[in-house]
Amino acid sequence: MITRTPLPYAHGPVRLMGRLVHDQTLARVAPLPGVLLVHEFTGPGEYMLPHAELLARHGYAVLLADMYGEDVRPGSRAEASATARIYRTDRQLMRHRARAGLDALAGLALVDPARLYAAGFSFGGCAALELARSGAPLLAAASFYGYLNTPLPCAAGDVKGRILVLHGVHDAVVPMAEIPVFEDEMRRAGVDFRVVTYPDAGHGFANAGQPADPSTGSWYCRKTCDAAWNAALAYFSVST
Q: Looking at residue 238, what is its pLDDT?
């Protein structure tokens, strides 16, 4: 039975409110691998639950992270952009805030701290990549249409696990021109990584509530979402 439980945690003085999603029956048998799943720029919301439940059905304990703080829930896309910009312009803050979530997840009795993963969407994909670059103990990190650029490129030995980038060719928010720069960073650092591009997709392809916006190449695509999750699940499985 899949359960969804509020999980308060903290980053220094900042109180955060995540949600733990897992299969209670599986957790009684053995500790579960854990996935930190990071939201889009709009913040935590119900739109993340289908992804968390998919992971839970495959045997993972999932912490839906809160990157903003329990009292910060943007009321508009403009407000969300301003909030996300705080972390996008301060990547150390983004890394430390994501690490607080990973530590909270790893500290749970039902989670195996030797089998940790991170994944995220757009802003959250960026957070997952920055967490991996910071040297966090991840077996793998997956970015769904996440921001790929960084002011803090990784060096040899920084990334402990594997990295998977899942990206839509028509994405104008994170244009394809960022991919060669990202790939060069990964190769220089000796990272085991893979980039998968989807020719029929743009930004936001995994968000069923994503308003279609031709100017940013954003729309929901169920087919691509399913394909990307199949790729991520296979990638995580190989990394275990």
A: 73
